[in-house]
Amino acid sequence: MRHFNLIHTLIFVASLTITGTAHSEVITDPVTTSSIPKATTTAKKPSKLRLSRAEKLDELFGELKREPNFGKAKRLASRISISWAISGSATANALMVWAQQAMRDGRNSDAMELLDQVIVLLPDYAEGWNRRATLHYVMKNYVKSMADIEQTLALEPRHFGALVGMATILSAIGEDDKALEVYERVLSIYPANRNAQASMIKIMQKLEKSEI
User: Mind listing the pLDDT tens digit for each residue in 1-20?
Assistant: First the structure.
């Protein structure tokens, strides 16, 4: 019955994605000159430029949850990821860049040292923990990766990237039922995430075969 309900959930999400596909070639900026209200006697809404970083992030997540079009949703997700990457510290930003380059070059030990420094410097910086979780996963340190993912989610429960990482690890160690639950969380935040949809279908098919 659980798998039957999950299939219905995926069909619903997929139908939303298909509905928005026809508009994928037309991507407009949500703030245009034509959308700015003209001067009237009524009070104007607060400018988006005046919103705090947290408010802007909340707004992006609201749009992401409502957006059925894959392309537009991906752009929103990218904007959220860029916001997460901003640490507020020039030192931490530099360390993150160097760590990323070290990972690309295969210098995992160097990258780990740099990310350790980021976390010591900014323990409340979710993306520092998430980046180190990714590195632990690459190095097949699944237990350590999961610990860093949990810390990331404690700081930012909506971190869909960290949730996908958690689901991936759970599936890799044979915890497919738990992986499905995590993918459900991903889709509740980011419904148009095709990778999460595909992963859910793959796991459900695997579980169905095992039950035969």
Answer: 454 444 444 444 444 443 34
Whole-number Å distance between alpha carbons of 169 and 89? 31
Supply the pTM of this predicted model: 0.76
Q: How far apart are CA 37 and CA 48, in angstroms?
A: 13
How does residue 130 score in pLDDT terms, banded at 50, 70 and 90? very high
- What are 73's two structure tokens? 């949703």
Rounded Cα distance between 86 and 157, Å, is: 17
Closest CA to 6 of 185, 173, 163: 185
Fold of 2-21+52-211: 1.25.40
State which amino acid sits at residue 55.
E
Per-residue pLDDT reduced to its tens digit, 183-209? 999 999 999 999 999 999 999 998 888
Neighbour count for residue 18 (Cβ, 10 Å):
12
Question: Cα separation of 212 and 209, whole Å?
Answer: 5
Task: Give domain limits for the chain.
Answer: 2-21+52-211
**What is the C-alpha to C-alpha distance for residues 143 and 85, in angstroms, rounded to an integer?**
24
| Residues whose CB is less than 8 angstroms from the CB of residue 203 and which lie 6 or more positions away in sequence, other chains included | 171, 176, 179, 180, 183
Query: Structure tokens of 47?
Result: 């400018």
In 3-state terms, what secondary structure has residue 9? helix
